[in-house]
From TrEMBL:
Residues 1-26 form the signal peptide. This is Polysaccharide export outer membrane protein. It comes from Flavobacterium dankookense. Residues 39-134 form the Polysaccharide export protein N-terminal domain. The chain crosses the membrane at residues 229-251. Its main location: membrane. PANTHER family: POLYSACCHARIDE EXPORT PROTEIN GFCE-RELATED. GO terms for biological process: monoatomic ion transport. GO terms for cellular component: cell outer membrane; pore complex. It is found in: Cell outer membrane. It comes from the Bacteria. Belongs to the BexD/CtrA/VexA family. It is a multi-pass membrane protein. Gene3D superfamilies: wza like domain.
Length: 252
């Protein structure tokens, strides 16, 4: 009887250690039957951003001086994008634009920068149209995710949930209530924490990621403890639970 009691206690401990609570796993636990306000977002142009700017008009010949030669605009980053006309934003937020000269775009949204260029080009062309895009919009996701990597964002708009989805979601060992977002603001690195189990992070300025943001997912206590005891602890606990169950049945 004593042996059976010991085995039963050991089994209970193993089962307790192997259980996980919903509050440690589920996202957005407090949003049942609630409507959250939709927040608009547009990225801000920063120094070292690489921009594509193409000018169009009803008379194409008039736009030639405002468009860089295609051979200069070749841009390659993982896949070839021949013919794209590119401008690098300098440390002061300026680009050197044909005919117009230096134009400060740093600190503006894409729409604001597009409107500014169109206003300046209007001095030379009637009703010009400017197509402006960011070519180096990237985010990095590291830590306890299934596919850590640096991801290029074509749409220039991505939420932290979408970024984690690109990275294959958090592993079971990812700490969901303490996600770190590293962002450069005014030339300084900032470190910002988000709790993905609480709906409030949707209203955070870090819900939408900026270009070059780094998302870091920390390991939870289970992962940290397993690094001390050994990576196969879960297998060991499962095997021990099975042996304990068999022993209880045999010694009844």
């Amino acid at each position: 009887m004593k042996f059976s009691n010991v085995l039963a206690t050991l089994l209970s401990v193993c089962l307790f250690l192997s259980c996980a609570s919903r509050k440690d796993i589920a996202y957005l636990q407090d949003v049942d039957n609630q409507t959250l306000a939709n927040t608009s977002y547009e990225p801000i142009i920063k120094s070292d951003d690489l921009l594509s700017v193409i000018v169009a008009a009803s008379q194409p010949d008039l736009t030639i001086p405002f468009n860089l030669p295609q051979v200069q605009g070749n841009y390659q980053d993982g896949d070839s994008q021949a013919g794209i006309k590119t401008y690098l934003v300098d440390s002061e937020g300026n680009i050197d634009f044909p005919v117009i000269g230096k134009v400060k775009l740093g600190g503006l949204t894409r729409t604001q920068a597009k409107n500014l260029l169109e206003e300046k080009i209007k001095e030379y062309i009637i009703n010009p149209s400017v197509n402006l895009r960011m070519l180096n919009y990237k985010i990095s996701v590291l830590g306890e995710v299934n596919k850590p990597n640096t991801y290029k964002i074509v749409s220039e708009r991505i939420t932290i949930l979408e970024a984690l989805s690109l990275a294959g979601d958090l592993t079971i060992y990812g700490k969901r209530d303490n996600i770190l977002v590293i962002r450069e603001i005014d030339g300084k690195k900032t470190f910002n924490r988000l709790n993905l189990t609480n709906k409030d992070f949707v209203s955070s300025p870090f819900y939408y990621l900026n270009q070059n943001d780094v998302v870091l997912v920390e390991p939870n206590k289970t992962k940290m403890n397993s690094s001390v005891i050994g990576p196969n602890i879960s297998v060991t606990i499962s095997a021990l639970s099975l042996i304990t169950t068999i022993a209880i049945i045999l010694f009844r």
